[in-house]
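Help needed: design a sequence for this.
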């Protein structure tokens, strides 16, 4: 009986009674002698579907092309268990040989071409198996039934680029189709597809694929910058790159930079370094990234020179790093206009390492050293306290080395540095932790670059969220004055909230500052006669309101040049707090200026 199956073989999988022939009762998805197919692909799809319905795997046995025009004249499709496995002389060497699956099953279907009509007709058919068939619950595991469509491949690639593991991605795909029985591929197929895709991506070799990645990014955006340093054997040694957003961010927020390196983020175990800073929301921004061959002076010098060349020779005002000697020498040689600061976090960790054995209940050396790092604002007091601390330790090797670079970590020396409140490389440490959550040491360079892009995008999304919050939420006004009302109309951010949370110094704090010499410095700036200001009057009184109004209308310009009184500083700061970059510098000026603590 003929059956024109050229309509759509994929729609044959209906219920038996719906697809059955009315005269013979044979379902339409069952093969029969005389069935015709327009193409061999249609016949193969029909045989695959039939194998899935019955419970056996299928494969192609042979195809006979014509010697004149090359058209396939006859072909045979068989059961997966047809024939026997050929013997191999190396079988005795295999410790765990593969299990035999073939049973010489006779099931097959043969087709020949009908040149008059132009289609293929079934002329040979055997449907009796000599082995057990698979259950309907396990038919989806047959190799012939496992396929990954273009849409499924697109979803697999997106999940991989988003950092979703193969197991979680496969479980998600199974839930979307109602279970793993309805999914046309297994977790192993999922992993094999990703491995094959990565192998195709490295067709030019790892170095060639990396160069192709940079070239594609340059084509997408002409402002993308990258540089590669070759060694004496013309092998890639050091790599630096920065996209357009990094270059723009450095132009706006590149006054304070932190740089640190980490390991274990790529297959080559190369040191990975990243330049970071703050934006006007105190969110982390990336200025550039690098992969180094080693951590030597030459590598760091090339890196810093390339960094400046990429950012139009603009040098930072302050740069924070760890205590790496080669890095410090390179910074001194390249960043000639920058102030070099050492990470106080690493210094405290080294202090704990060297001083823990000498600590007793009577003398806490770590606490005393912390006071030297953060507490003393006067240089003479710092020197005396540090000298006293050194006498309590027998071996002074580490103390001597850290004292030689005191200008890079002590509070009294770093007070005049432009830091924006940054004292360590914790930004770099935080980003490195984020990277290691998504990056593994077995990643090739191309995959490393793509996952790094995803981490950077997450940081930029945080910046957009902060921008949204600053424009959406209105700041709370604790004191209703014209200046604060005007300042409240500007977008509020993290820095404003920090300034609002600052409390007026107590008398004890004033006394301590006066002992450190701040009162002596400020003495020449005070007027001989004491005048009553709005901030000295009782809050809420009519006289206070009049004085505040008079101050706002007449004396606003003088506040900028004369920071006397905490109220003036706070009001003037909030007046300036908009969405511009200058708000960062105003905040740092208040935090570092000794007159602001009176």
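Sure. Designed sequence:
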């Amino acid at each position: 009986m003929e059956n024109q199956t050229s309509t759509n073989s994929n729609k044959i999988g209906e219920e038996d009674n719906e697809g059955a022939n009315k005269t013979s009762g044979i379902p339409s998805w069952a093969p029969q002698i005389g069935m015709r197919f327009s193409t061999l692909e249609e016949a193969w799809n029909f045989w695959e579907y039939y194998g899935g319905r019955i419970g056996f795997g299928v494969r192609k046995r042979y195809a006979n092309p014509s010697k004149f025009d090359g058209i396939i004249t006859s072909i045979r499709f068989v059961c997966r268990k047809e024939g026997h496995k050929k013997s191999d002389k190396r079988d005795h060497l295999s410790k765990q040989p593969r299990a035999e699956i073939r049973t010489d099953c006779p099931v097959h279907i043969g087709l020949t071409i009908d040149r008059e009509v132009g289609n293929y007709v079934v002329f040979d058919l055997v449907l009796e198996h000599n082995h057990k068939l698979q259950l309907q619950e396990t038919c989806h595991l047959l190799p012939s039934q496992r396929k990954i469509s273009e849409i499924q491949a697109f979803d697999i690639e997106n999940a991989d680029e988003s950092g979703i593991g193969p197991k979680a991605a496969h479980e998600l795909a199974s839930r979307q189709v109602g279970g793993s029985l309805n999914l046309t591929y297994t977790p192993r197929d999922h992993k094999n597809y990703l491995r094959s895709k990565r192998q195709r991506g490295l067709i030019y070799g790892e170095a060639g694929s990396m160069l192709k990645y940079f070239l594609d990014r340059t084509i997408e955006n002409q402002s993308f910058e990258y540089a590669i340093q070759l060694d004496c054997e013309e092998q890639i040694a050091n790599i630096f790159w920065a996209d357009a957003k990094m270059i723009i961010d450095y132009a706006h927020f590149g006054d304070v930079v932190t740089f640190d390196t980490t390991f274990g983020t790529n297959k080559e175990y190369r040191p990975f370094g990243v330049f970071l800073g703050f934006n006007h929301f105190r969110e982390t921004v990336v200025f550039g990234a690098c992969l180094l061959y080693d951590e030597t002076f030459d590598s760091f010098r090339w890196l810093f020179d390339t960094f400046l060349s990429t950012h139009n020779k603009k040098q930072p005002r302050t740069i924070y790093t760890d205590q790496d000697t080669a890095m410090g020498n390179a910074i001194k040689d390249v960043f000639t206009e920058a102030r070099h600061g050492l990470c106080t976090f690493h210094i405290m960790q080294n202090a704990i390492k060297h001083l823990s054995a000498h600590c007793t209940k009577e003398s806490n050396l770590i606490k005393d050293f912390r006071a030297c790092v953060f507490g003393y604002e006067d240089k003479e007091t710092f020197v005396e306290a540090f000298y006293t601390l050194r006498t309590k330790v027998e071996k002074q090797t580490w103390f001597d080395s850290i004292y030689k670079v005191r200008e890079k970590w002590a509070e009294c020396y770093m007070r005049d540095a432009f830091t924006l409140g940054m004292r360590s490389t914790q930004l770099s440490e935080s980003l490195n932790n984020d990277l290691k959550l998504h990056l593994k040491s077995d990643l090739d360079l191309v995959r490393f670059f793509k996952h790094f892009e995803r981490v950077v995008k997450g940081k930029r999304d945080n910046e957009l969220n902060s921008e949204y919050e600053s424009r959406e939420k209105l700041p709370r006004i604790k004191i209703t004055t014209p200046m604060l009302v005007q300042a409240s109309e500007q977008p509020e951010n993290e820095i404003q909230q920090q300034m609002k949370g600052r409390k007026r110094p107590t008398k004890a704090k004033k006394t301590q500052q006066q002992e450190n010499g701040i009162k002596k410095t400020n003495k020449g700036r005070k007027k001989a006669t004491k005048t009553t200001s709005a901030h000295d009057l009782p809050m809420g009184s009519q006289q206070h309101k009049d004085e505040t109004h008079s101050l706002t209308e007449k004396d606003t310009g003088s506040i900028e040049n004369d920071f006397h009184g905490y109220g003036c500083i706070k009001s003037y700061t909030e007046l300036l707090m908009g969405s511009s970059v200058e708000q960062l510098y105003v905040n740092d000026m208040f935090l570092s200026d000794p007159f602001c603590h009176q």
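The CA atoms of residues 103 and 166 lie 35 Å apart.
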